[in-house]
Design goal:
Layout (H helix, E strand, L loop, with lengths): L3 H6 L6 E7 L5 E10 L2 E3 L5 E3 L5 E6 L5
Length: 66
């Protein structure tokens, strides 16, 4: 069964997104890149970054201006 958050990420696969994650010690960190799956993205350096939906604070699609 697809979770609610995973269902929201499916249409964003292949698009550029920014995701703010909770840090275990407190605070946040941002990751930006092309969403490769519902729990991973590839940043501008070509690194594949995986994350858990439990870590997500907020996210949005990055829409390029023409």
């Amino acid at each position: 069964m697809v979770g609610e958050l995973e269902g929201r990420f499916i249409p964003l696969v292949g698009k550029r997104v920014t995701i703010r994650l909770h840090e275990p010690g407190g605070g946040f960190r941002d990751i930006v890149g092309i969403l490769e799956s519902t729990n991973s993205l590839r940043n501008r350096h070509g690194q594949l970054i995986t994350f858990s939906h439990d870590e997500i604070f907020i996210w949005r699609e990055v829409i390029a201006t023409p």
